[in-house]
Amino acid sequence: MKYTELEMPKAGERVVVGLSGGVDSTMTALLLKEKGCHVVGVTMSLWDGALAKPGEKLDLHDSCYGPGEEIDIEECRAFCASNDIPYYVIDVKKQYKEEVLDYFKEEYRAGRTPNPCVRCNRFIKFGALLSGIQNMGLEYDYFCTGHYAKVVCGDSPLASLYGSSASAAQEGSAMPAQISCAMDSTKDQAYFLYRIPSSVLEKVRFPLACYTKKQILSMAHDRHLIAADREESQDFIPSPYLERLFSDSPSVPGNFIDMDGKVLGKHKGIEHYTIGQRRGLGISAREPLYVAAIDKEKNLIVLGRDNDLLCKGLIANDLVWPANYNPNCAFEAMVKIRLASPPVVALVEPYNEEGETSVRVMFKEPLRAVAPGQSVVFYKDGVIVGGGIIAKAIK
Questions:
Q1: What mean pLDDT comes out for the span 94-109?
Q2: What is the reported pTM?
Q3: DSSP bridge pairs for 321
């Protein structure tokens, strides 16, 4: 199938830009302004101060959720004022707590590894924030962010992507908006955006898709932007607050065991560990040990050697598909099990277990540290054709 990148905003069109204070979103707004678009800046307010101690002051300016938000908002406000861009702050604290923070805790306590960025993009940045914009009566032709990705449309019905055995469901005749990888593979963020519905993508654009990060930084320096010298956000929540997030319920210590069931020591609670983890285990051994599995029911952390982390496949559920079209057939695709992992060839096929709609993904070559709770995303020709949440690894 051939894909065409959907048209970018033109001069005179109304564009709302999601601003974080970082160089990517700032340059997005400025490039659109220079193009002649009517730009409005919006920032979502997430930080409610619930995890801060009375009178505590920490200069935390490199996380999505934290007290540094106040500085970010002031920098965004100053940037917009100096460039004649209307600016608004939209409160999404309640939705963020319910959809991201509570989810994060529940997943770790269930022995899974959550991905807050995927969750935030689906329900907050391209969900609650857009609802807030609508509630404020802000009309726009496009909503733009500083993500490195593309919005494209194929030239053939969606069903043709998956082969002759694909479902004949009506949704398969659609040619919807889909997410494609950005030009700069080192900064590509398509993986984080895979759950955004096609209907939402119709009015979403990513103006940085055709630039490299190096080019954006160079243009920001040329324009003397303060954001050009800011460090990028590294974590979704600052480490001083991470332990406090889990303080609403005491951790339950349990046993570390090896692959044969031998007790190796005590762990401090399963929410403190993730598949593939090596550091912070506090276990002495002749060779490096890693978290190979987490058993919530028995409150056990299974440790193994590096080879014990290899998996030949996985089962995924909570599936999403472009235009909500489930092909319900086996197809080959490139798959990624985490943002930093290179895509690998795999066979994706329907798999029903206990009445739940799932897929089984079998890799052409084994992958290391498949973590339940993380996302597996399917690609064809660099375009996302589906994805889901990893339910379990196939060793």
A1: 96
A2: 0.94
A3: none
